[in-house]
C-alpha cells in the first residue's frame, strides 16, 4: 500500500513490537515494488506502559532507533532522532542496527516478566518457610545492581505484551537452533501459570477443600490498576479455576464492562505447551458468574474474597462492613498484597496474602496439589 501511493523517497518507521527481521521483510516488499523510489526502514519500538503511557512518552527512559549501517540508513536515523530531540535528551536516544532494535523490545519485556516470575517463585518459598516476600523483595531491591522495581509478588503478570513477546522470543530461539535458551524463557511463563494455579489451590484448600456452591467475590478483573485492559489478565485463569470447582462468582471491577468479562471467560484458550484447545465455559458455568456494581454488592453473603487487581479503592474499603455482611468464616485472598493483613485479622477475617507468613488456620490446611 505504501509503495502504491509513494511518489518520492520515504522513511518507513516500524513502531509495533514485531518478530525480529520484520523490518527486513518490509524492506524487501517495498524494494520489489519501488518504481525507482528509495525506501529506508527504521525500527523504533514503543516502551510505553498502560496507565502511565503519556508520562512515558514525555519522559522516556530511552528512545531506540534501529536502521541500516549505510549512508542513507544513517541519514534516516538522524531524521527520526531530530524529531525526538525536541523533547528527549540526546543521551537517551540510542541508535542501533535494525535487528538490535527489534530484539531489544522483546528482551526488555522478557526481562521484566522474568523479574515478576522470580519474585513469585520466592513467594512460594516464603510461605513454606515463614518468611515475608515483601521484606525479601525490599532487601533484594536495595542492591543497586538489581533495583526495587518489578519486585512485587502477585497472583501473576498479565497484559498484551509479556506472554506474547516471550513466546516470540521462544520461537526465534527454536528457529535458530537454541532449544536450551528457548526452554529458559518458557520457564518464565510456566512459573506465571504455576502462581495462578497455586492461588486457586490455596482458595480451595482453605475453604475446607471445597468451594462448590459457595459465593466468592472477585475484586478486580483488569490485569493492572488504572486500565480497563483484560488481555491475558490472571483473573481469567483464576476465575476459570474457581468455576471448575463449581464456585459461584460475583465480579466487580471499576473499569471492565460486564460484556468484556463474559467474553473473556467464554473464550477458548490455546495451551502452547500442549497444542490442544481448552474448552470454554459451559452454559452452566456462565450462570455461576454475576457482575456487581460495587465491592459491597459483590461481597454481600460471600464466603470469600479474591483481590486480583491492585485498584486503590480496594485499600480503603470498609472491611468491617464487608465482614458483617459475609458468611462465616470469612476469607480474604489477597492476590496483590494491598490490604493490611493484621487489621483484617483483628476484624475476624482469615487472610491469605501471597508470600506472607500463614496464619494458624492456613497452616493447618496446606494447599492441595
TrEMBL record:
InterPro entries: 6-PGluconate_DH-like_C_sf (IPR008927), NAD(P)-bd_dom_sf (IPR036291), UDP-Glc/GDP-Man (IPR017476), UDP-Glc/GDP-Man_DH_C (IPR014027), UDP-Glc/GDP-Man_DH_C_sf (IPR036220), UDP-Glc/GDP-Man_DH_dimer (IPR014026), UDP-Glc/GDP-Man_DH_N (IPR001732), UDPglc_DH_bac (IPR028357). It is an enzyme of class 1 (oxidoreductase). Residues 217-341 form the UDP-glucose/GDP-mannose dehydrogenase C-terminal domain. Keywords: NAD, Oxidoreductase. SMART domains: UDPG_MGDP_dh_C. Gene3D superfamilies: Cytochrome c1, transmembrane anchor, C-terminal, NAD(P)-binding Rossmann-like Domain. It holds the Pfam family UDPG_MGDP_dh. The active site is at residue 161. GO terms for molecular function: NAD binding; UDP-glucose 6-dehydrogenase activity. Substrate binds at residues 47-50, 105, 150-154, 158, 224. It catalyses: UDP-alpha-D-glucose + 2 NAD(+) + H2O = UDP-alpha-D-glucuronate + 2 NADH + 3 H(+). GO terms for biological process: glycosaminoglycan biosynthetic process; polysaccharide biosynthetic process; UDP-glucuronate biosynthetic process. This is UDP-glucose 6-dehydrogenase. It comes from Nyssa sinensis.
Amino acid at each position: 500500500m505504501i509503495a502504491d501511493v509513494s511518489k518520492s523517497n520515504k522513511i518507513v518507521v516500524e513502531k509495533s513490537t514485531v518478530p525480529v527481521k520484520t523490518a527486513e521483510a518490509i524492506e524487501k516488499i517495498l524494494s520489489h515494488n519501488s518504481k525507482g523510489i528509495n525506501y529506508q526502514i527504521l525500527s523504533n519500538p514503543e516502551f510505553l506502559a498502560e496507565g502511565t503511557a503519556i508520562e512515558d512518552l514525555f519522559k522516556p527512559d530511552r528512545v531506540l532507533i534501529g536502521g541500516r549501517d549505510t549512508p542513507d540508513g544513517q541519514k534516516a536515523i538522524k531524521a527520526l532522532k531530530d524529531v525526538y530531540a525536541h523533547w528527549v535528551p540526546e543521551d537517551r536516544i540510542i541508535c542501533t542496527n535494525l535487528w538490535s532494535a527489534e530484539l531489544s523490545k522483546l528482551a526488555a519485556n522478557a526481562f521484566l516478566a522474568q523479574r515478576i516470575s522470580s519474585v513469585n517463585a520466592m513467594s512460594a518459598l516464603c510461605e513454606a518457610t515463614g518468611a515475608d516476600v515483601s521484606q525479601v523483595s525490599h532487601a533484594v531491591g536495595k542492591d543497586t545492581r538489581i533495583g526495587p522495581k518489578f519486585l512485587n509478588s502477585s497472583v501473576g503478570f498479565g497484559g498484551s505484551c509479556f506472554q506474547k513477546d516471550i513466546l516470540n522470543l521462544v520461537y526465534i530461539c527454536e528457529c535458530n537452533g537454541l532449544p536450551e535458551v528457548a526452554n529458559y524463557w518458557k520457564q518464565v511463563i510456566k512459573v506465571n501459570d504455576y502462581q495462578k494455579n497455586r492461588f486457586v489451590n490455596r482458595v480451595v484448600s482453605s475453604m475446607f477443600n471445597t468451594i462448590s456452591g459457595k459465593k466468592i467475590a472477585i475484586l478486580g478483573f483488569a490485569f493492572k490498576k488504572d486500565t480497563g485492559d483484560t488481555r491475558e489478565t490472571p483473573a481469567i485463569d483464576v476465575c476459570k479455576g474457581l468455576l471448575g470447582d463449581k464456585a459461584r462468582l460475583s465480579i466487580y471491577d471499576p473499569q471492565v464492562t460486564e460484556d468484556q468479562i463474559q467474553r473473556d471467560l467464554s473464550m477458548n484458550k490455546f495451551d502452547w505447551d500442549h497444542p490442544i484447545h481448552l474448552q470454554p465455559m459451559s452454559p452452566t458455568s456462565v450462570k455461576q458468574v454475576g457482575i456487581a456494581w460495587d465491592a459491597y454488592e459483590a461481597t454481600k453473603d460471600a464466603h470469600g474474597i479474591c483481590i486480583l487487581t491492585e485498584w486503590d479503592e480496594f485499600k480503603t474499603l470498609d472491611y468491617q462492613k464487608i465482614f458483617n455482611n459475609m458468611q462465616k468464616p470469612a476469607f480474604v485472598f489477597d492476590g496483590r498484597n494491598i490490604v493490611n493483613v493484621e487489621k483484617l485479622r483483628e476484624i475476624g477475617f482469615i487472610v491469605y496474602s501471597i508470600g506472607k507468613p500463614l496464619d494458624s488456620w492456613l497452616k493447618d490446611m496446606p494447599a492441595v496439589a
